[in-house]
Amino acid sequence: MSKIKTNASMTSFIDYWDIVIEQWLQNNFNSPELNEQFEYAQAMGISDQNRLPEPYWGNPGNCSFAMMTYNPGPCSDSRHNYRFCQDSSYSMINEIKKSKYSDFAKSFPLLRDLKPTENWFSDSIGRAWWQHHKKKWIDDLFGARGSEKLPFAMEICAWHSSYWKGINNKDFNRFNPLITDRVYNAFIESIKQSDLKVGLAFGKRIGRDLLDRYVNIQNLKFINKGINYNLYSTGTHYIINYWDDKNHRNKYPKNAKEIIDILKTIKTLKSHTNHQLPPIS
């Protein structure tokens, strides 16, 4: 299989998660990487580590854009990602055991069309959710420009849960190296390597829990029919934080136009002198 083309920072991120998931599959609870992740998940209020962690999907070195959400949601997809499922001859876990997580994740099977040999994955609940909530606006955002690339999507926390507690100051200080290296820096690097050059972060708490701690919020806020957007600047790249006005949840666009309108506005800002701008006209 071809290797993901990335710089050293992203290679470290990918290798780290291949190690964590390999150790999880082998029930190696003495692994320092796996123990670190278990402690992090528990601090985030996530007690069930029997579901396959999903830290990211896609290829950070060859993506249309980079996006971030809190963590994988609740999951009853037992055949595909539950450690103790007996009916797992054709499952996500079984497929990853053949090689490693990055080989399975980089082609983004949650979004792309499945090959005939991959029909076993067609009943995945996680895939059905992505197809219903995200596929259309993602396809429209870059598909209209003739791009066949898929996005790179990563999580603040890789473990499944029905609720995101968030990162308080105590937890942030405790897990600062992990959050900085394995989350924030990886997200910024994926934005740099994406075609869009602008990151998308879904859910208001990503701003509060993560972005506010690292980057400057711009004097710009969009409100359009109950949807909110905050704009952050790293100094060279912008990040759009997007959420539902009613409950601050990680609401997703109904169509690509919602994102494109913001991107067009970004290109009019005086502050964009040193920024990489999106190829949106």
Structural class: alpha/beta
> What is the ordering of alpha helices and beta strands?
HHEEHHHHHEHHEHEEEH
Mean pLDDT equals 84
**Percent of residues in β-strands:** 5-15%
Instruction: Label the overall shape.
Output: globular
Description:
- The structure is a single chain.
- The protein is α/β, with parallel strands linked by helices and 281 residues long.
- It has one domain.
- Helix content is 39%, strand content 14%.
- It has a seven-stranded mixed beta sheet, with helices on one face.
- Strand 6 (227-233) and strand 7 form a beta hairpin.
Blueprint (SSEs and pairs):
Layout: H1 8-25, H2 32-43, E1 56-57, E2 66-69, H3 78-81, H4 92-98, H5 101-105, H6 125-133, H7 135-143, E3 152-155, H8 169-174, H9 176-193, E4 198-202, H10 204-214, E5 216-224, E6 227-233, E7 238-244, H11 256-266
Parallel strand pairs: 2-3, 2-4, 4-7
Antiparallel strand pairs: 1-3, 5-6, 6-7
Helix pairs in contact: 1-9, 7-11
Nutshell version of this structure?
The protein is an alpha/beta fold. The chain has helices at residues 8-25, 32-43, 78-81, 92-98, 101-105, 125-133, 135-143, 169-174, 176-193, 204-214, 256-266; strands spanning 56-57, 66-69, 152-155, 198-202, 216-224, 227-233, 238-244. It has a 7-stranded mixed sheet, with helices on one face.
